[in-house]
Amino acid sequence: MRFLTANPSYLQVTPLALVILLFLLFPVVTIVIVSFWDYNAYQLLPDFIFENYEFLLTSSVTLSAYLKTFFFAITSWLITLTLGFTVAYYLAFYIRSPLLQSVLFVLCTVPFLTSNIIRMISWIPLLGRNGLVNSTLQEINLIDAPIEWLLYSDFAVILAFVHLYTLFMVVPIFNSMMRIDRNLIEASIDAGASAFQTIFQVVVPLCKSGIAIGSIFVVTLVMGDFITVSLMSGGLSASVGVLIRNEISLLQYPAAAAGAVVLLITVLIMLSIMFRFINIKKEL
Amino acid sequence: MAAPDKAKRKAGFIPLTIIFVLFIIFLYGPTATIAILSFQGPDGGLTFPMNGMSLHWFRQLFEEQQVGDFGGSLTRSILLGIAVMLCTAVFSLLAGLAYRRSFMGGNVLFYLTLVSLILPSILISLGIGIMFDRIGLSPGWYSSAFGAHLTWTLPFGLLIMFAVFNRFNKSYEAAAIDMGATSWQTFRLVVFPLILPSLIGVCLFGFTLSYDEFARTLMTAGTFNTLPLEIYGMTTNVTTPVLYALGTMTTLFSFTLISAALIAIWAVRKSRARKAPTSA
């Protein structure tokens, strides 16, 4: 026990380590174990069977859910990246007053600290059949009948993802951009590069890790989501998270656990690719 | 804005400003819309047009039979938020201090904390739910949901603390020790005041992230709902603007907290600047 008194770090880090152990590692281990169990309508039956995985991996429902989820993830990623990069670029390079810059930055991040569910619900009066968008378009005679695919559709799901998660791109990309030596930009322009060449050949490579951090957030949040998909698609689309959620509500925990393990492995593979681009500790 | 400043504006300033303004409208527009609609008259519906103006739906909110258990779930969410906030602040501060020295297992724990942040919430929710079930504890908002929330707030707290201590100027501390301060005095009188603004930020994150958390609470709250669960329940069975009234109330509550935290941070910085007029 001498190392405890020699280095107070061990004592200081104990609460964090306990939370991680009790509420992250144990639950994940539990999921892995339970995913091999059997179950009937009333209870879980400890066992070691592969049926949950067999059923999961051979079902066409799983395949289509994964395809749908990847589609949501890639589309949302592309849009949030483009939008987030543009907003961060504007804040970092076009706003000169530090005070205004902080105010606008805070303005972009405040919604993160408000309720996601409320932010999703607030699209209903805008996008619904009799919503503001449809009634305005009808009033100016652009359309005859209300557009049906605005709400409760894949469009609505992606819109909500972009609405909820763009700031996860803005914050790390802005952070990377603020560290770029402004002389490099000047040099690029002096050397005759166009604005676009400067952006793509100087700015983008220099905020690679900001882009990677934002991408990790957006992709993992979308991959594991069930609430946005079920609320905004009105139950019409099924992502991987929605399937797991359905099995949970039917109390088929081993099946849900197997689904969660496969999702976890998928996410970890995607993360291992994205983590190659960054050194997190250097970013802080 | 002075005139020469304007002349120096870079190309692309106007289109980018337009994009930025549209982005802000995109961020806040929907929330503003339901804020307006929550003042619908008693006969008003979920969409425009406004059918008169009233506080009818806000009054409805406080009549328990109408919208489930709004008062109870709000109380639970606030208590849980406060507990999560305090633990997040204390635990991340301690861990932040711990990481100023290297120690065995430090890297593993750091990456596990990151995993805790980016692991799909439904996995943590399901895992804690089943774990409590298996060891024969009934899940509760004050036990399992509390732990689940910490797995979401602590990584943010730790990352903020890392950022703080990476920028921390150690010579202040060295000076205090040179002048004979004990390590507790150094912490209380030098380190703590310097990092106080960031700690307020950690508290803000801790409270608001817990207060709004849905996915990690779903399987862990037990018998009694927290506010986000209550709101989610309402989306399927409430078809009146009372839903908007509730949304507007909680958003206003969050905005109030955010403003209070920002003002507190600003006040701390300002009082420090006044105390040290010579450092510029």
UniProtKB/TrEMBL annotation, chain A:
A Pfam family recorded for this sequence: BPD_transp_1
* UniProt-listed GO biological process terms: transmembrane transport
Q: Which GO terms describe its cellular component?
A: plasma membrane
PROSITE patterns given for it?
ABC_TM1 (PS50928)
- Subcellular localization: Cell membrane
**InterPro entries in the record:** MetI-like (IPR000515), MetI-like_sf (IPR035906)
Give the record's keywords alphabetically.
Answer: Cell membrane, Membrane, Transmembrane, Transmembrane helix, Transport
Q: Where is the ABC transmembrane type-1 domain?
A: 66-274
Provide the topology term for how it sits in the membrane.
Multi-pass membrane protein
Name the family the entry cites: Belongs to the binding-protein-dependent transport system permease family. CysTW subfamily.
Query: What is the name of the protein in this document?
Result: Putative spermidine/putrescine transport system permease protein
UniProtKB/TrEMBL annotation, chain B:
- Highest rank taxon of the organism: Bacteria
Primary residence? membrane
Provenance organism: Marinobacterium lutimaris
Q: Tell me yes or no: is DNA-binding among this UniProt entry's keywords.
A: no
Entry protein name: Putative spermidine/putrescine transport system permease protein
Q: Where is the ABC transmembrane type-1 domain?
A: 74-261
One Pfam family named in its UniProt record: BPD_transp_1
Tell me the lineage of the source organism.
Bacteria, Pseudomonadati, Pseudomonadota, Gammaproteobacteria, Oceanospirillales
Question: According to its UniProt record, where is this protein located?
Answer: Cell membrane
Its BP terms in the Gene Ontology are: transmembrane transport
Q: Which family does it belong to?
A: Belongs to the binding-protein-dependent transport system permease family. CysTW subfamily.
Q: How does it sit in the membrane?
A: Multi-pass membrane protein
Keywords attached to this entry: Cell membrane, Membrane, Transmembrane, Transmembrane helix, Transport
Q: NADP among the record's keywords?
A: no
Q: Transmembrane stretches, by residue range?
A: 12-39, 78-99, 108-132, 144-165, 186-209, 242-268
The UniProt entry's GO CC annotations, sorted and at most eight, read: plasma membrane
**InterPro entries given for it?**
Bact_Polyamine_Transport, MetI-like, MetI-like_sf
